[in-house]
Amino acid sequence: MAASIKQYYQKFYKGSKKSCLGIIKDKLETGESCFVITANPEILMMGKRFPEMDQALTGKDTLLVPDGIGVIKGGAQLGVSFKERIPGVEICEELFAYADDNQKSLYLFGAGREVVEALVSRIRREYGGIVLKGYSDGYVSDKDEVFREIMSLEPDIVMVALGTPQQELLIQKHFAGVNKGVYIGVGGSFDVLSGLKQRAPSFFIRHNIEWLYRITKEPKRLKRFWDSNIRFLFELRKEKHGSGKAV
After folding, report:
1. Start-to-end C-alpha separation, the chain
2. Whole-prediction pTM value?
3. 171 CB-near residues (< 8 Å, 6+ apart)
4. Which of 5, 65, 92, 150 has the most Cβ atoms closer than 10 angstroms to its Cβ?
5. CA angle centred on 170, ends 168 and 171, rounded to 5°
6. How far is Cα 113 from Cα 122, in angstroms, rounded to an integer?
7. C-alpha to C-alpha distance for 194 and 123, rounded to whole angstroms
8. What pLDDT digit, counting tens, does each position of 45-69 carry?
């Protein structure tokens, strides 16, 4: 039986981005494995639908961080407070800088070939200290084979940009066999990190409405927003008032 939204909130990291990154860096230094999930309401709702996603969200080695502002607002309804929102793209940028300074290794998996190759070029140009163990676009036919290669290489950091829930489910499927490394699903972050797509202007970031900017740029996201965020609000209301029924 899937965990409740309230149980997911118990698992969330609630501190600052700086202290969250401190935890991740400690894992990198000790060689421990860690599965970082940057969660928004859509991911939490998928935990209610997919047993494997539920297992990923509640796993003992999972660091669950609040990416979407909907998570922060939802927490307020349940009496759960967060220090701040921790966007996945910002975690990636910080990890690039840390890996560069400390000669940590990296594997990139996902997005289109043009995007991932542009990101590789940027890393080689700007972060010469990073040991790039390998990369693959996300359109390969056998993603499990790519993951087996990743695990054999044992990189310190693995960023997977296959979109939700594919990236989380794939990491979860193989994570028990991981000996070391920080694995993080990064969604569409490669587009921004590569420089091929701009992040939302600072006004939208500052006011926590990046989701609105993305919808204006890609109207097809509106249905996805409704299916996840609006249903999430209904689920929160049911749990708040003691109903265990799913939406």
Report:
1. 15
2. 0.88
3. 35, 56, 160, 183, 185
4. 65
5. 65
6. 14
7. 9
8. 999 889 999 999 999 999 999 998 8
* Strand pairing class (33-39; 181-185): parallel
- Under a CB-based contact definition with an 8 Å cutoff, are residues 106 and 120 in contact? no
Q: 112 and 139 in contact (C-beta within 8 Å)? A: yes
Q: Are 35 and 175 in contact (CB under 8 A)?
A: yes
Surface-to-core class of residue 1, CB atoms within 10 Å of its CB (0-12 exposed, 13-18 middle, 19+ buried): exposed
What one-letter code names the amino acid at 186? V
Cβ-Cβ contacts under 8 Å for 37 (sequence gap 6 or more): 43, 56, 57, 62, 63, 64, 65, 168, 184, 185
Question: What secondary structure does DSSP assign to the chain, as a single string?
Answer: -PPPHHHHHHHS--S-HHHHHHHHHHHHHHT-EEEEEEE-HHHHHHHHH-HHHHHHHH-TTEEEEE-SHHHHHHHHHTT---S----HHHHHHHHHHHHHHHT-EEEEEES-HHHHHHHHHHHHHH-TT-EEEEEE-TT-S-HHHHHHHHHHH--SEEEEES-TTHHHHHHHHHHTT--SEEEEE-TTHHHHHTTSSPPPPHHHHHTT-HHHHHHHH-TTHHHHHIIIIIHHHHHHHHHHTT-----
